[in-house]
Design a protein that fits this description.
The chain is 73% helix and 0% strand. The chain is built from 14 helices and no strands.
């Protein structure tokens, strides 16, 4: 496969392409294998244009809806406890009340760094070479966390310190190929959470940042995303919701019984294959991206 020429104007995405990318977004947003990597790699393999960081951020709202519905009981309980804690000192000491603040604290690093490096995230860091190396690097870190992490604590034992440090790990997901769930689960395992707790906390922690990224992209790219691209964006968002809901349920059940090693192997193999194709000139680092 030879590298395709860079398009001179933004192409209109087809419905089939939107369905494929939406399903890929939903599955890989929550499985720790990097949604951004797959949204870049899949178009490169098929000769499609890169849909762009804005498209990815907006269709993430489909995965956000999946999280909100799947965890509606947890979210309602945490929200009620948090509001009670604003005026009731006893309620403030409840774990659910603390969890609201912990999630807020854990969201700060990715918001600050996301705004600071916005230009690089949307352009330079979407290089397939960066994605290849990041897939491998985070995969190896996740494997090490699985092997050496204490894994002694459940979600009811999450602390302020966990919120801050796992939030810092979440900010690594700004680098395409790292994976939001992969980086946060890795951070959770390193700081002593068991696999199920690390995954559940990862999903809850994702809510504010996905919401903020989606709204910002909608505001900045509304004319492009909701003009000629309106139908593909809607189709991809619905596909991301359906596949994302399935991925959440699958991962929680999977990690309750098994390790993350299968995802480690997948990440490393995909990264090695991607770098090999780049070295052979089959793909180019910025393939499909608009100027």
């Amino acid at each position: 496969m030879s590298a395709s020429p860079v398009a001179s104007a933004e192409p209109v995405m087809g419905v089939l392409e939107a369905i494929v990318l939406g399903i890929a977004q939903g599955l890989t947003e929550f499985l720790p294998i990097s949604s951004t990597a797959h949204i870049r790699v899949i178009p490169a393999f098929f000769g499609w244009a890169d849909p762009g960081a804005a498209f990815t951020a907006v269709i993430q709202l489909g995965t956000l809806l999946a999280v909100l519905i799947y965890f509606r009981g947890d979210i309602a309980r945490i929200a009620k406890a948090w509001f009670r804690g604003l005026t009731d000192p006893v309620a403030r000491r409840e774990q659910d009340s603390k969890m609201g603040w912990i999630i807020a604290l854990g969201t700060i690093p990715i918001l600050v760094l996301g705004l600071a490096f916005k230009s690089q995230i949307e352009k330079d860091w979407r290089s397939l070479e960066i994605i290849g190396w990041t897939l491998i690097g985070m995969g190896l870190l996740m494997g090490a966390a699985e092997r050496f992490g204490p894994q002694r604590r459940g979600l009811d034992a999450v602390t302020w310190k966990d919120g801050l440090w796992v939030g810092i790990w979440q900010s690594m997901a700004l680098i395409p190929g790292a994976s939001r769930s992969g980086s946060t689960i890795t951070g959770g395992l390193i700081f002593g959470l068991d696999r199920a707790a690390a995954a559940r906390f990862s999903f809850l922690l994702s809510i504010p940042s996905i919401f903020a990224a989606g709204l910002l992209s909608m505001k900045e790219h509304a004319s492009a995303l909701f003009g000629a691209q309106a139908v593909p964006v809607l189709v991809a968002t619905v596909a991301a919701f359906v596949s994302g809901y399935w991925a959440i349920d699958f991962l929680l059940k999977f990690l309750a019984r098994r390790s993350v090693y299968v995802f480690v192997v997948y990440r490393v193999v995909l990264g090695v294959v991607l770098l090999a194709l780049l070295r052979q000139g089959v793909l180019s680092p910025m393939q499909g991206m608009l100027p």
